[in-house]
Amino acid sequence: MVDARYADGAENPVRLRAENTEDLAVISALIQDAVGQNGETSWQPSKHRFALLINRFRWEDKDAAEAQGRPFERVQSTLVIESALKVGGEGLDPADKEQIFALLALEFAPAEDGTGTLSLILQGDGAIHLEVECIDVTLTDVSRPYLARAKQVPHHPIADA
Question: What is the pLDDT of residues 121-157, one digit of tens each?
């Protein structure tokens, strides 16, 4: 497989930090359809940190790839949530380190005292919920882009109500 973009400094890896809901919406859009594995998650309660290694679809490159007739790309990224006090969720078996998940969105539900719940919404009705002191999320690309196996843009048909 051939490495893709970031050639000649024309593009740079994504390095973003969210500290409010507007910032979080940007990161949420970029991690939509990212895939990960249970064994690539890390909960560090003493550091109040939850981290995931994900393979995210490069939404920021989609239009250019279509215009140039070249394959779509993915990139390995870390998604790190700081100030996490508690982790829970549904739809994943923490003991199954081989279990694959697909991220759909990040959502924040504020509490009255400024804390809140940050939810990583997963495909198939699953979610990872983190009780957080505040929004403190970073998304960092940690590999060169690579060609995505799928030849189509990820999509989610809307179910009839």
Answer: 999 889 999 999 999 999 999 999 999 887 777 776 5
| Positive or negative torsion for Cα 146, 147, 150, 153 | positive
Q: Nearest Cα to 24, choosing from 148, 121, 126?
A: 121
* Assigned token pair, 160: 């009839």
- pTM, to two decimals: 0.88
112 beta partners: none
Residue listed under structure tokens 């920021």 = 60
Structure tokens at 45: 């309660």
> Nearest-CA neighbor of 2 among 142, 146, 149?
146
Rounded Cα–Cα distance for residues 131 and 50 (Å): 11
Exposure string (b/e) for 46-81, b if CB count within 10 Å is 16 or more? eebebbbbbbbbbbebeeebeeeeeebbbbbbebbb
